[in-house]
Structures are given as C-alpha cells and as structure tokens.
Design a protein that fits this description.
This protein has 6 helices and 5 strands, in the order H-E-E-E-H-E-E-H-H-H-H. It has helices at 2-5, 75-88, 129-140, 149-164, 167-174, 177-203; strands at 14-25, 51-59, 64-70, 93-98, 114-118. Strands 3-2-1-4-5 form a 5-stranded mixed beta sheet, sandwiched between helices.
C-alpha cells in the first residue's frame, strides 16, 4: 500500500477497492425452498439467452459498494465504470484491485485519483467482490423468472441499490483479515512517519 501511495501526484486519503463484473440473465436459478405441508413448492423456470452485466467495486475497510449496470463487458464499458467510481470519490486516491481479464488491460484514460493493480492469475478467491455477487444471486435472484430484459435490469438495479445502502453488511461480508491488516499496517506506518517528522522538527527548533 505504501508503494501504491507514491503513484499519485496529489496526496489524498487512500481507498482500497476490489472490482469485478457479473452476468445476470433470464436463465432462472432454481433452488430448494420452503413450503407448508402438504403443498409442494412450484417455481417458474426459464431459459432465455438475454443478459445484463453488473460492474461492481467494494471497499472492504468501510463497506462502501459502487455499481453500474452496463450492456457488455469490454474496455469501453469498463472505462465508463472507472470514470464513475473516480467521480464518486474526488477527495480520495483509489487503488483498485482487479483480475487479469482482457478488457481490464485496455488502454484506459485513468483519472488522476485512480490506479489499477492486478491479482495473480486464476485467483478469484482473493477478490472479495466475488462474495458480493454470491450474496446478490442468493438473496435476490434464486427462483425468479423475468418476462423481459427490462424487468431483469430493474430487479438487478433494485438489488444493487439495496447492497449499496448496507455498508455494515458489506463490510462484514468482505472485510477479510489479510485485507484489513494491510490497510491497518499502512495507516500505522503513516502515523509513525508523521510522529517522527514532528519529533524531528521539535529537536531542531
């Protein structure tokens, strides 16, 4: 984290975010569910090849979650998402961690408060944003069928909005120990450096 801080031209508070995309379609996710005896649960199933794509980025330290629904996964849509996240945090420097998908390595025009770093190959288990998608699918999409792509997108928007408004839940879901420790160590190092600077100034006054 200390090394990443030096990549920014202007000193601002640092925000660590993890990013990923997920596809949501009109192929219903049928799962077990409860029903009172003697009735058997009946759910509607659908297989229609229409999809919407959610772009998301989570801040494990405070549970802030940012998302957009876009029509495709490519460099152009990724640029729109990066611009939006940078715009939402104008007073912070953002270090965004993401996987090595091809469109993640497009020649982006990054805002001056945003920098990208990449996870090791084939390591989705290191990205807490994956858990956000699991939560969204489990709580909002199982045993659901949609009459149109517009209905799917409206439901997806509602689910994403609810997650964005639950930072404590998102922090609990994604605040993994190794991530929080890395942030805490960076803050501690910065605090110690600031303290030593003050002592140095006092000694030579």
């Amino acid at each position: 984290m200390a090394e990443e801080r030096t990549r920014f031209a202007v000193a601002r508070p640092l925000r660590l975010m993890f990013q990923d995309e997920a596809r949501f379609g009109r192929i219903s996710d049928v799962r077990h569910c409860w029903q009172k005896k003697p009735h058997r649960p009946v759910v509607k199933a659908m297989v229609t090849q229409q999809y919407a794509y959610a772009y998301g980025a989570i801040s494990p330290a405070d549970g802030r979650f940012d998302s957009l629904i876009l029509p495709q996964v490519n460099g152009k849509c990724m640029q729109l998402f990066l611009d939006e996240v940078a715009r939402r945090y104008p007073d912070e420097n953002i270090v965004m961690v993401l996987d090595g998908a091809g469109w993640h390595k497009s020649p982006f025009q990054l805002a001056d408060n945003l920098r990208l770093i990449f996870l090791p190959p084939y390591a989705p288990e290191l990205n807490p944003q994956e858990h956000v998608w699991d939560e969204l699918r489990e709580k909002y999409f199982h045993n659901r069928a949609f009459d149109s792509l517009e209905a799917l997108e409206a439901h997806l928007e509602q689910g994403l909005a609810q997650l964005e408004n639950q930072p404590e839940k998102m922090q609990s879901l994604t605040g993994w120990e190794w991530i929080i420790n890395s942030i805490s160590n960076e803050l501690l190092a910065k605090s110690e450096f600031s303290y030593k600077q003050k002592i140095y100034k006092v000694m030579f006054l």
